[in-house]
């Protein structure tokens, strides 16, 4: 075989080797169990066993393929895989995993394969133990060698070690040691893609570096995405808690004044108002609920309106409900309707001299829930309408919560005629069962 063909063959084999390492890493990263085990810094024996069970089968397959045919040399990642297991799993996982993945090579009388892989795994475990901050392991990447000048300067000026250089130097040492062992033994008791001491060895060392660094970089990117998703969930929860706290009822003192007035001449009514208030306060303490069935939301509104009826008088406030029974088990954002009903009472009906009326309607069409809250209050003038969504605390918070939970897949519409009343329509996706896991 002439030189150009040999160089081309070697380059192709080394590229396939790095590609196989990256493919295995990407495949393993798809399993949630593997991600949980991989991204746990302190592992118990069960988690260490799971890490080996995930990583050893594809590496065993690679060694077996290499033994089957010369054209599959690129599939053998025994040394790199053992070193990775030690780097991620520690001094126990690395040597044991390295010994397991070289069992096929041992069967084919490659007597140095198992000791070499176990030593590589032990070296990775010792590096993991030596590094003070385990986060530095994830900084090792395909281009870490570019940081060598910076590492030298830091070592000379501040006597600080650049710990991500440790895996780099270990990979170089492992590949050089493997080539030295293959060159020194006859017959060949250990496999190396190119066991020659020439300039091609530099390509082999780079491929070994890449075969270790590429999986680490893929898994680190997955880890960063998971952390971002978790932080987004925490941020969403914080925003929802803040918004929920802003739309809690502001009628506590009015209710207590009502109880104080009723207790003198109608103790039974006062007792009923206290019970309704306790139901409301108990519900407000359940802040962990993001979604609740519409039926529970309507029960909360009933308690709220019963208190308001006690305040205003039954002759001054009429509540009409037109509810589709099929909508009652639909999940809606907690505290969705109360701020809107409160706005109807406070801004629509309170200034009205004669009796007020609130109508509540629910329907579902085409997989969506439609809710309407209508009052016959004083209405909203055309001049004030553009400011309702922004300045009205209740409605602005409802809109913001819907935007956080549904993105653009919702509609909140207000129509009002001065002197006649206001109707507010809410349109959201209808979800019945899947939201139970959110609570």
Explain this structure:
With 439 residues, this protein is an alpha+beta fold. It has 2 domains: 3-235, no CATH class; 249-438, 2-Layer Sandwich (Heat Shock Protein 90). 60% of the residues lie in helices and 11% in strands. It contains 16 helices and 7 strands. It has helices spanning 3-28, 32-38, 45-68, 78-89, 93-101, 103-107, 113-130, 148-158, 165-184, 200-246, 252-265, 267-284, 294-312, 338-349, 385-391, 393-406, and strands at residues 291-293, 317-323, 331-333, 356-365, 368-375, 411-417, 421-429. The strands form 2 sheets. A 5-stranded mixed beta sheet has the order 2-4-5-7-6, covered by helices on one side. The chain has a two-stranded antiparallel ribbon with strand order 1-3. α3 packs antiparallel against α4 (78-89), α4 (78-89) runs parallel beside α10 and α15 (385-391) crosses α16. The protein is elongated and about 105 Å long. The two termini are 68 Å apart. 35% of the residues are buried.
